[in-house]
Task: structure prediction
Amino acid sequence: MTEFITRFIRSVLPDALGRLCRDRRGVSAVEFALIAPFMILLYLGSVEISLALSIDRKITSVSSALADLVAQDDVVTDDEMRDILNAGSVIVAPFDPVPLEIRITSILMDAAGEVEVQWSDADGMSPYAEGSALAVPAGVLQPNRSVIMVEVEYRYETMFGELGVNHFDISEIFYLRPRRSIVVSRS
Result:
C-alpha cells in the first residue's frame, strides 16, 4: 500500500498540481471576489458622503431661511414663531426632521458695547435666557443695533455604524440684521 501511495505522489500529484497552476479559467472570479467588497464599500461610502453633503446644504438653507423670516418682521408673535420653527422641518425634507434642533435669538449691542439676548426661542434645544451675555464674532454687531442669530444642529446617522462612523454632527450659525426696525420685538 505504501508503494502505491509513493507512486501516486511521484507521478499523479505533480501532474495534477501542474494542471491546476496552468488552469486560468477561475482567475477572473477570484479577482472579482477579492476586489468586490472594497468596490462595494467605496460605492456605498460615496453615496453616504453625498447624502451628508446634501443634508449640510439643507441645514444651511434652514438657518438662512429662518433668519430671513424673522428679520422681515418687526414684531414676532408666538404663533408666527411656532410656524417659523416648524418651517425648519419642511425645509429639511426629505431628510428626517427628528434630529433637527433650532434656536432663534435676537441679540442687541447697547451703546457701551455690551451684547445681550433680547429674546430666544428654540425647538429641540434650550433657548438663551433673556438678558444673558452672549459672545458674537467681531463685526457682526454695531452699538445700538441688533441681529437675529439662528443656530441649527443636526445629527446625521450613517449606515456605517459597524465600521465606527456612526454619525456626522452638522451645525450652522446664521446672522441677519432686521430689515424693518432696529430690533425685532417678541410678543
Remarks:
- Residues 27-71 form the longest helix (45 residues).
